[in-house]
Write a structure and sequence with these properties.
Blueprint (H helix, E strand, L loop, with lengths): L1 E2 L14 E4 L2 E3 L5 E3 L4 E3 L4 E3 L2 E4 L5 H10 L42 H10 L7 H7 L5 H8 L28 E2 L38 H11 L10 E2 L5
Parallel strand pairs: 8-9
Antiparallel strand pairs: 1-2, 2-7, 3-6, 4-5
């Protein structure tokens, strides 16, 4: 199901189009730890309730619209607590990216804070890990790894040019990585939620032991990438889309 009127990629409101993702299940890579019994609980499928997901990643053009109204998120004045020094690094000016940035491509060099603010401005939110992984789960691992193995293009292509998955969403794989609401929750165990320790074993070469999908190397790469992030980080191939 698609919500919103017809719109081609020249339209700035491309993400007024949202896809209804049906109820389903997401299987985490690793088991949970029972805080009372001090033992692991097998990784069981996690129910994912139906939700809406943007059909495309948020584009540069759409982000310009956001910045034109929400001035505090412009690159010249954004507080350093909300984004690192590379925020919108490939843009020339606050509201004009310049000739080396394709306005129809996904916006990148955005922090988790700014992505979250954009979604709130649209009356939406970032998808959770479970929602994003479930929505993106139908892509063959071989196709994802082929994309992962290629260097990112200096000028990103238009949204909507990669394959469409069975739900009708584009570009979940094939152009950029995407922020999720709980990006750093995978590595926090029950015993460390009130502290700073994370589950270090997930970084190790033997981390596939006990995994529910040891063959899904692409999922391990996404987990490792998310775990390396801080909410203020900005990366050349990291953007976002909204959920609701």
């Amino acid at each position: 199901m698609i919500l919103g009127g017809a719109c081609d990629f020249d339209c700035k409101a491309a993400n007024d189009l949202m896809i209804q993702i049906p109820d389903g299940f997401y299987r985490p890579l690793f088991p949970e730890r029972d805080p009372d019994l001090k033992e692991e609980i097998p990784a069981l499928p996690v129910p994912v309730s139906s939700f809406l997901l943007d059909k495309f990643p948020v584009t540069v053009s759409e982000y310009i619209d956001f910045l034109s109204i929400n001035k505090k998120w412009r690159k010249s004045i954004i507080p350093s607590i909300y984004a690192d020094s590379l925020y919108l690094n490939n843009w020339e000016f606050d509201l004009e990216p310049g000739d080396l940035v394709n306005k129809k491509s996904p916006v990148t060099y955005v922090s988790w804070f700014s992505a979250k603010a954009y979604c709130a401005w649209k009356g939406k939110r970032l998808p959770t890990i479970a929602e994003w992984e479930y929505a993106a789960s139908e892509t063959p691992i071989e196709k994802i790894l082929k994309w992962y193995s290629k260097p990112a293009s200096e000028i990103l292509p238009d949204v909507g040019l990669t394959f469409k998955n069975k739900f009708g969403t584009f570009d979940l794989h094939g152009i950029i990585w995407e922020w999720v609401l709980d990006f750093n929750s995978d590595l926090i165990n029950e015993e460390s939620r009130n502290g700073t320790e994370i589950e270090r074993s997930m970084f190790c070469g033997g981390s596939s032991a006990g995994s529910s999908r040891p063959e899904d190397y692409a999922a391990f790469m996404r987990l490792a990438f998310r775990s390396s992030l801080n909410a203020k980080y900005t990366v050349s191939n990291l953007g976002f889309r909204c959920a609701k």
